[in-house]
Design goal:
With 327 residues, the protein is an all-alpha fold. It is built from 13 helices and no strands.
Length: 327
């Protein structure tokens, strides 16, 4: 419908929804990534070349997690940014590095798994640590180049109190074009590569009767982890980010829709979900590192033993069997 005045969007929703999510992700993400990276580095010689990508995945997570306290303050103060325009852009840049860097490194992990399982003879001796490091550097460079234009868009409002994740309404049309192209190259293409590689891997594993059952089980687990990451974290954010930008363009043109407020709220929810990737990515550590899995099992067993222990008896009371013995 065309109106000169549009329905008011609930801009207060992020200040209520995002801070608790950021706090949860910050605590869980730091503990999980720190523990996972420490265990992985401790057992580096026992692990494969794929862990170069896992290491970079953890570094990307920690880079973003360190910016969360500033965003917590921002939303706790009801969207008042206290740290300047430059640091606002740096914070958003770190988020983009984490988001698309995570997608890139997860794609590299899938391609390596694909080559090792489907083409083991061709890949043998060619998947070296040097190659993994070189590919990781390329991923960082590509993601940085993709994210760099975002820093040239105005992030703060005229009174310098806000820190927008995209840009203000003045440049929203240009940002929508940039965001759509970014989604295509930085998300859709890696996502299709991931689906193609693991779809072929599953077909090959199911057809081969000689395939190790442990390898088949681990590959299926990794596929499940990737499906969860993409379905929960990445797909909703890219879809609703562009829908929200399109809604803002229409609103600027005086074209209003009843779904604008709903799209904005769902987009904010997807922002909370996408930052969960920093807490869920350590699942890749658990999948690929049996040492970490063993440590986790030990911790769970200790926790169960603590809860199963009977409550301590009063020091002044005398056990019944002692009473019977004395009698």
């Amino acid at each position: 419908m065309n109106n000169t005045t549009c329905q008011r969007v609930n801009f207060d929703f992020p200040s209520r929804f995002l801070p608790p999510v950021f706090i949860l992700v910050f605590i869980v993400g730091l503990v999980a990534n720190g523990w996972g990276l420490k265990s992985m580095l401790y057992n580096w010689k026992k692990l494969g070349d794929i862990n170069v990508f896992v290491l970079n995945l953890g570094l990307a997570d920690i880079l973003y997690l360190l910016t969360l306290p500033f965003l917590m303050v921002y939303y706790f103060m009801e969207k008042i940014w206290l740290f300047g325009d430059a640091f606002c852009k740096i914070t958003r840049f770190c988020f983009n590095l984490n988001l698309h860097g995570s997608i890139g490194f997860l794609t590299c992990i899938c391609v390596y798994r694909y080559l090792a399982i489907v083409h083991p003879m061709r890949a043998r001796g060619r998947l070296t640590v040097t190659h993994s490091v070189a590919i990781s550097v390329m991923v960082w460079l590509v993601v940085s180049v993709q994210s760099l234009p975002d820093m040239f868009y105005i992030k703060t409002s005229e009174n310098k109190t806000e820190c927008d994740e995209t840009t203000n309404d003045t440049y929203v049309e240009d940002y929508l074009k940039y965001s759509f192209g970014w989604t295509l190259t930085g998300f859709c293409i890696p996502f299709l590569i991931t689906l193609g590689c693991y779809g072929h891997v599953i077909v090959v594993l199911c057809r081969r009767n000689t395939t190790d059952e442990v390898l088949k089980r681990r590959s299926l687990k990794l596929l499940f982890i990737l499906i969860v990451l993409f379905s929960v974290c990445y797909i909703p954010d890219h879809v609703f980010k562009n829908l929200n930008l399109w809604s803002r363009v229409l609103t600027k043109q005086g074209i209003c829709h009843e779904w604008s407020n709903g799209v904005y709220i769902v987009h904010q929810i997807s922002r909370g979900l996408v930052c969960l990737n920093s807490a869920l990515n350590p699942l890749v550590y658990l999948h690929g590192n049996e040492h970490i899995t063993a440590q986790l099992r030990q911790l769970l067993q200790r926790a169960r033993q603590m809860f199963r222990r009977p409550p301590p008896t009063d020091s002044g009371s005398v056990p019944m069997n002692q009473i019977k013995d004395e009698v």
